[in-house]
Design a protein that fits this description.
Length: 309
């Protein structure tokens, strides 16, 4: 894979994106990195400052305290004309129609998903070069969560430590499901309308799981839809990357069913998914969700004790 400097120099729209905000570790040396994407209409600076100041349930420690050797990187989306805002420019990772009507005007997402994935991959590569892929977590809130899931599906570098989805959804999920031949399984799961964390997820068939054909079919469909070149041969990094999906039960911006369906889709492809719902939460993160993210990272990585609060 090309280096960070090579990727940055060759990216055609680099001038459209503000430089990401990078918050240095509270303690040296720098051992881990989080790349966290804001929601539509926000900025990396504003979102990042609020996130890192949010206290855990103990009212004292924060995400930065939990990972004192981590750098937190907060990119800002380029301005794009927003269909839902009468075509006015909005800071958004990709254009979209109605979030909760997933199959309506999906083509609006193509340009932004394709261009932003490449931009996020540049910053993932920088952190991989500095601390190693096993020490990098990618995530986001709302549209930023959706973008992080797509960027992870398209990532062709080494497997990262994890991906975190806070009140987001998985764009183009059904297009990928059709190609992966798992749509019928997902429909059965959707009919139960049960929190994925409280039931046994149906995995891919044994034959598909053995050679990851379902994963390859899904990513092939995504790459074709976004007019990208086929994925390189071999195992896909996202298949071995654990995912945390957290959603507020009273989220009326991105309905909780979309969080459940994202978890179902990834789990059915064999991804190790941790899914949590928050009974009193709307469309945002909470101290409890952030604490669960910390638990997820500690359980799914081999980060040493020096990174623990």
């Amino acid at each position: 894979m090309a280096t960070f400097q090579q990727l940055l120099a060759s990216y055609p729209r680099a001038s459209d994106y503000p430089r990401p905000v990078a918050v240095p570790p509270k303690q040296q040396p720098h051992k881990q990195s989080f790349i966290i994407l804001h929601g539509r209409g926000d900025t990396g600076d504003n979102f990042g400052s609020m996130l890192l100041e949010k206290p855990f349930p103990d009212k004292v420690s924060t995400l930065a305290d939990a990972f004192p050797h981590a750098r937190f990187v907060f990119p800002t989306a380029a301005p794009r004309r927003a269909t839902v805002a009468a075509g006015l420019p909005v800071s958004q990772w990709f254009d979209q129609y109605e979030i909760n009507q997933q199959e309506e005007r999906q083509g609006l997402q193509i340009e932004g998903l394709r261009e932003t994935s490449a931009w996020i991959h540049i910053w993932m590569q920088r952190e991989v070069e500095e601390v190693g892929a096993k020490n990098v977590v990618l995530g986001g809130l709302s549209q930023g969560a959706a973008m992080s899931l797509i960027a992870n599906l398209l990532w062709e570098g080494p497997k990262i430590a994890g991906v975190v989805d806070m009140c987001g959804w998985l764009p183009l999920r059904l297009i990928m499901a059709d190609r992966a031949l798992i749509r019928e399984q997902l429909i059965e799961l959707e009919a139960t309308d049960i929190d994925p964390g409280a039931r046994e997820i149906v995995k891919s068939s044994a034959s598909d799981a053995e050679d990851n054909t379902a994963q390859h079919r899904a990513v092939a469909a995504l790459r074709e839809y976004l007019d990208l070149t086929p994925a390189k041969e071999g195992p896909l990094p996202f298949g071995k990357t654990p995912a945390f999906i957290g959603h507020g039960y009273f989220d009326f911006t991105v309905f909780v069913k979309l969080g459940r369906r994202s978890a179902d889709f990834l789990s059915t492809l064999g991804v190790d998914v941790t899914y949590q719902e928050y009974a009193t939460l709307g469309h945002w993160y909470s101290p409890e969700m952030l604490k669960d993210v910390v638990t997820f990272v500690h359980e799914k990585t081999d980060w040493d004790d020096a990174s623990r609060a």
